[in-house]
Amino acid sequence: MKTYQVYQVDSFTREKFTGNPAGVVLNADGLSEKQMLAIARELNNSETAFIFSPDASDHDLKIRYFTPTTEVPVCGHATIAAHFVRATVNQIASSMISHKIGIGILPVEIIKEDQGYLIVMTQGKIEFSEPIVGQEKKDIVAALGLTQEDLDQRCPIQIVSTGHSKVMIGINSRKKLDSLVPDMASLSKLSALIGCNGYFVFTLDTQMPDVLTHGRMFAPAIGIVEDPVTGNANGPLGAYLIKHDLVKHNHRSFSFKGEQGTAIGRSGIVEVQVKMKDGEPVEVKIGGRAVILFQTTIEL
User: Fold this and answer.
1) Residue 222's pLDDT is what?
2) Residues 42, 251: contact at Cβ < 8 Å?
3) According to the model, what pLDDT value does residue 165 have?
4) For the whole model, what pTM was predicted?
5) Residue 223: what pLDDT?
6) Which residues are catalytic?
7) Are 88 and 292 in contact, with CB atoms under 8 Å apart?
8) What is the pLDDT of residue 237?
9) Alpha helix (H) ranges present in the chain?
10) Alpha-carbon distances, residue 65 vs 44, 62, 146 (angstroms)
11) What is the pLDDT of residue 25?
12) Residues in the chain with pLDDT < 70?
């Protein structure tokens, strides 16, 4: 029997019961995939992060991520939660480390602040699929409860990835965003056809100071009806905004804050940084803060 340290954390916020909840297992060495899935299912967060010792000298630690139903290669809010817990428990000073996750070995910056930590993670390779058109576009719009008139015509419906792909759907109105009631069964069926499980509906119709975008993310095909605040959606959104000339920038870098979760009472903020080369997005980082709700132990 081994005792495992388990934490319940809210990410992309400093306020308890807002942002995106994640589980964190601080000392996961020895857990099997079956056990990790069982823990993730029991905690019932959209993702739980499991921190392992490194298995080579080219990284400082490993993280694996499980939803209640499956393993995923990377998760933004669970990464923020994992490094926040590790830094808080071990009282880590501001530093740069590397972690090994499902999409490779990537850097993470830990910034100590007066009231905790800001965690900034580099996301994976930016990839754009061809815009979705024709019947598939019509089906996505209908499944989300939208009409063609609701769409922001500057924004093609397109799959974008920085490690875990999302469908980007830009709309005109914050009011419409908050009132969406998607057909989850239809979205699940469409996921198999388009090869992408997450639908990120966003708007530039902002109503908060210093916030550029508001969004909602639905992924029923992997058991996530609605994810409160999604790093793997807001990060790709940053690359998407540059790609389609939707924002002004200096052709070297662009930063913004994306808000998500208001419609379900779990608002949080993702800080996004996009690095550019020749005006094109080449690297995305996302940052966020977190708060620990509670800690417990499990013996397995």
Assistant:
1) 85
2) no
3) 95
4) 0.93
5) 81
6) 47
7) yes
8) 98
9) 33-43, 76-90, 134-143, 174-178, 184-194, 231-243
10) 13, 10, 32
11) 98
12) none
The amino acid that residue 55 corresponds to is D
Q: Is 54 left (phi over 0), alpha (psi -120 to 50) or beta?
A: beta
**Residue 182, class by beta-carbon neighbours within 10 Å (0-12 exposed, 13-18 middle, 19+ buried)?**
buried
- What is the dihedral sign for C-alpha 300, 26, 68, 196? negative
The CB density around residue 89, as the number of other CB atoms within 10 Å, is 14
Cβ contacts of 207 within 8 Å, gap of 6 or more: 174, 214
**Residue 269, both tokens:** 């903020």
CA distance linking residue 155 with residue 171, whole number of Å: 8
With CA atoms as reference, report the closest residue to 76 among 133, 10, 13, 121: 121
SS3 243: helix
Alpha-carbon dihedral sign for residues 274, 102, 196, 182: negative
Amino acid at the residue 283: E
pLDDT score recorded for residue 41: 96
What's the confidence (pLDDT) of residue 148? Answer: 96
DSSP SS3 for 78: helix
Place of tokens 């057909």: 183
- pLDDT digit string (tens) for 177-211? 999 999 999 999 999 999 999 999 999 999 788 99
Measured distance CA(253)–CA(274) in Å, rounded: 6
Burial 210-234 (b: 16+ CB within 10 A, else e): eebbbbbbbbbbbebebbbbbbbbb
190 contact partners, CB below 8 Å, separation of at least 6: 136, 139, 140, 143
Query: CA-CA distance, 283 to 106, in Å (whole number)?
Result: 12
Distance CA 220, CA 196 (A): 11
Q: What is the DSSP string of 163-203?
A: SS-EEEEEES-HHHHHT----HHHHHHHHHHHT--EEEEEE
At 280 the three-state DSSP class reads: strand
Rounded CA separation 117/102 (Å): 24
